[in-house]
Amino acid sequence: MTVLLSAEGLRRSFRLPRRSLCGPRGERHAVRDVGVTVTAGRHLGIVGESGAGKSTLLRLLLALDRPDAGTVRYRGRAVEGRRPTWFREAVQVVLQDPMSSLNPRSVVRDIVAEPLECLKVPGDHDSRVAEVLAAVGLGPDAAWRYPHEFSGGQRQRIAIARALAPRPEVLVADEPFSALDASVRAQVIDLVRDLAARFGMTLVLVSHDLAVVRRLCEEVIVLKDGEVAERGDTADVLRRPRHPYTRALLAAVPRLPGAAS
Ligand SMILES: Nc1ncnc2c1ncn2[C@@H]1O[C@H](COP(=O)(O)OP(=O)(O)OP(=O)(O)O)[C@@H](O)[C@H]1O
Ligand SMILES: [Mg+2]
């Protein structure tokens, strides 16, 4: 099995503001000694309650933030500095809120072509834009409209099209479905699953929602207070949660209709 994204011993802490004028500054250990292995074709879910360190871990894996300790690798090669081009070609990202991640003053064509231009991908960008817009279920006329002319679900489709454009091997997403209405949520979840299969992408998905991870991810990491509470096959972990924290998370989650148990 091919290991794509991996990390060992990741740590990241943040200084807290002083409580009093001459008191000591505390530290919040947002991520402590976390290792991650993303294998090609095995989608990974990262779950945990709010503040567990999911987004911090994701930012480290994306090289958007530097760890205090530990290394992130892609296909065995250390990712150093701020997001080298070869790494951005391979790993693309979709964030929670499409409205704030899409430039309101650009038309969709320019938004979706942006990674191709930044990464100097050769070839006809207009035809690639049309291809990925079609892949996410948007017509060619979408290319000349602005983000505010779309619904929330369509905007998230645009963000997904942009991430697909440079043909990444790994698609990383931080709560990509949680800002969506329940009615379009299930459609976008299925779309992401189908696109991953069609384009051979491996997903790394942060979610506080175990039902989403159950639906999409073969493997799961459960984070608690910045540490790995439990990890393994999603089916095994969710069927026989060993850690009381995972049991508590499971008990708090309503099931998606049609989700396998
Ligand atoms: N830039 C920062 N400065 C200070 N503290 C931070 C910073 N980023 C994160 N933290 C702290 O680190 C901890 C983990 O935060 P993180 O955003 O990774 O959690 P999360 O699991 O993504 O939560 P949520 O589900 O609410 O998004 C929290 O206690 C948070 O307050
Ligand atoms: Mg978060």
CATH superfamily: P-loop containing nucleotide triphosphate hydrolases
State the assembly state of the protein chains. single chain
**CATH level 1 class label:** Alpha Beta
- Give me the side-by-side strand order of the main sheet: 6-7-8-3-9-10
**Rg computed from alpha carbons, rounded to a whole number of angstroms:** 19 Å
Low-confidence stretches: none
Provide mean pLDDT, rounded: 92
| Ligand kinds | adenosine-5'-triphosphate, magnesium ion
Architecture in CATH? 3-Layer(aba) Sandwich
Number of helices: 10
The total tally of domains equals 1
Report the β-strand fraction as a percent range.
25-35%
Structure description:
The protein has a single domain, classed as P-loop containing nucleotide triphosphate hydrolases (Rossmann fold, 3-Layer(aba) Sandwich). The chain is an alpha/beta fold and 261 residues long. The radius of gyration is 19 Å and the shape is globular. Strands 6-7-8-3-9-10 form a six-stranded mixed sheet, with helices on both faces. The protein contains ten helices and ten strands. Helix content is 35%, strand content 25%. α4 (108-118) packs across α5, α5 (125-135) packs across α6 and α6 (152-164) runs parallel beside α7 (182-199). It has helices at 54-61, 85-90, 98-101, 108-118, 125-135, 152-164, 182-199, 210-216, 234-239, 244-251, and strands spanning 3-15, 27-39, 44-47, 69-74, 77-78, 91-94, 170-174, 202-207, 219-224, 227-233. Bound molecules: adenosine-5'-triphosphate and magnesium ion. Adenosine-5'-triphosphate is lined by residues 14, 28, 30, 48, 50-56, 208.
